[in-house]
Amino acid sequence: MAPHEGLVHPKEYDIKDSNVELIGTDLDHRVKYNSASTEPAWNDGKVGQTPGLFIWRVENFEVVPWPKERAGEFYDGDSYIVLHTYKVGDDKFGHDIFFWLGSKTTQDEAGTAAYKTVELDEFLHGAATQHRETQQRPSDEFIALFRHVSIRAGGVRSGFTHVEPEEPKEVLTLLRVFKHPSAGRSIIVYEVEPTWESLDDNDVFVLDKGDKIWVWQGKNCSPMEKARAAQVVNDMTLAKHIDVEVLAQHEARSRVIVGLLGGREANQSSFQAPRPGRFNNPATGGSAQSRKLFKLSDASGTLSLDLVKDGQRVSKSDLDGNDVFLYDSGDRLWVWEGAAASKQEKALWLKVAQYYIRQIQESVAEAYLTPIIKVAEGYESPSFLKALEV
């Protein structure tokens, strides 16, 4: 994230203009917990009590359990909530809650996902780390939860109008299969534009033409990518019995696939296409010069966001349990919530974080894709502590 200025005393967050007298109080927490305790999605006897992965999709303002066998499968028109519960010691659990926003999800779906994430955190007694994830720039922590990730076009209809593309006269779907550049052994299956310009020597592509499935193996693709593509094709042929043809790029016949994708006139022997979003240029962490630490405090009577450190190393000793801090580490925005922070500071963390991102967007167009992660004092995640050490 590039260096940026300002963000002092944002007027819209003046306490006098906010009707939030009870937010953050014991009564507020009890009300929210009671609401969460009646949510069927959280009350299956396993959520929060059993280690593992739990996934829900937002459908018509409700959270609906996602089939376990489809873990890692997402649609760009939807929003999802993913809970990862893991053991910490012998008798304690740690929790990470991710709400994942597809690139074409609607405002009501995204809003429901954010609201329900807060509710789930309340159900877990505020002990969870909350993550806002976007399709175009998912964090390594999110991708590492799944052995395989598949991102396809489409999605469930929302409570509001969900824009649907017109059906093409000929069904043509192109899937790009590639290894994630930094998240372990994760293999990504990503639906891309069905054109020959989407091809790349380094990856495998699956072309579903409706009446036949073609597999194009780039000359530099890996065995893992070939194996994953084979699994994808197997799943597709279970649903419809059609012919499949696998062609390696070095085979002369592989030009058939290029032609089917509109490249009959293309005569190159090598193909290069950027991978989608952050899969193309994975973030490696910002330089020390780009990192910033802000304090969100209402001690003066007006909620303000003040720059505390700019370019210097940030450590846990810089954090005060009486306030909320925003730490821009370069590739993501961390929100650290002090245990004794005020009700207003705790209530507005996401709104302030999004406001901060909007300011950066004036100079960095894709800043809105930045992962936002909230950690609570005493429940800091290993990835947050690591971000402070770098």
UniProtKB/TrEMBL annotation:
GO CC annotation terms, alphabetical: actin cytoskeleton; cytoplasm; endomembrane system
Ranges in coiled-coil conformation: none
Keywords: Membrane
Domain Gelsolin-like: residue ranges: 61-143, 189-237, 313-385
Residue intervals passing through the bilayer: none
Gene3D superfamilies for this protein: Severin
Single annotated GO MF: actin filament binding
Main location: membrane
GO-annotated biological processes: actin polymerization or depolymerization
Signal peptide boundaries: none
Domain of life according to the entry: Eukaryota
Entry's localization field: Endomembrane system
PANTHER family: SEVERIN (PTHR11977:SF130), VILLIN (PTHR11977)
Name by which UniProt lists this protein: Gelsolin-like domain-containing protein
UniProt organism field: Aspergillus nanangensis
